[in-house]
Amino acid sequence: MHTPVDHHHMAFIASIWPTAIVMTTYLVFVLKLGPKMMAHRKAFELRGIIKVYNIVQILYNIVTFIYFTHFMFILRPYSLRCMVSLPLDHEHKDRERFITYLYLSNKFMDLLDTVFFVLRKKNRQISFLHVFHHVALVTFSYAIPRFYGAGGSPLLMAFLNQIVHAIMYTYYLLSSISPAAQASLWWKKYITMFQLIQFALIFLQCIDMLLQPNCEAPRTVAYVFAAFSVALAVMFSKFYFKTYIRPNRRKSGRS
Predict the structure, then answer these.
(1) Is residue 1 over pLDDT 50?
(2) pLDDT tens for residues 96-109?
(3) Residues catalogued as catalytic
(4) Helices assigned H by DSSP within the chain
């Protein structure tokens, strides 16, 4: 049994069409239309726009992280070992809905990353991992509240994700200042390490919930998130090896 889904108060999530239209447009643009449109055009600079975008992302993620922290650890509406969507008459239900919207809105905002890559003709950065990651997060951030209600166990993933994204967009902002600034940012590889730690914690949370026979959190969600965290961990590990370990091995082999 799970909490009845409150579609009356979650109008955007109640209809599949807004999300379906946005995601279809995104995929058509970044995989087909955008690269074709830019093939014979000069790449856009967009430095000013991207700096503003990075600042907005940093502030958005920090503010939502603080809001999430207050909700989860000060108000404490959940048991962290078994996070179940709150009943419709719970005093903090409106906060739970608002947090769900905050996170979903941020996943839509993240899609601009790929749009900027297309317009700047950085097509090598539009990898399968990049597109899969964005599409999967929007899909889950929409589908889980749609079918299982706002909040609950996915909020741990959202909470961890806000931390990682605040750090990641801080790196992007600093690296955009100048090539010299980018070269001095030695901690870039640790962002991927933080992401791997995030996936491990989500996996452990899912396993812990599944091992509790009395936990009423949706087991389907736990299985999906466990599998998703493993898939992302494998792909990000391959990225880490290819980007940071293999070049160092080549350098040491030449020396």
Answers:
(1) no
(2) 999 999 999 999 99
(3) 133
(4) 11-14, 17-28, 34-38, 47-69, 93-110, 112-119, 128-148, 154-175, 179-184, 188-210, 219-240, 246-254
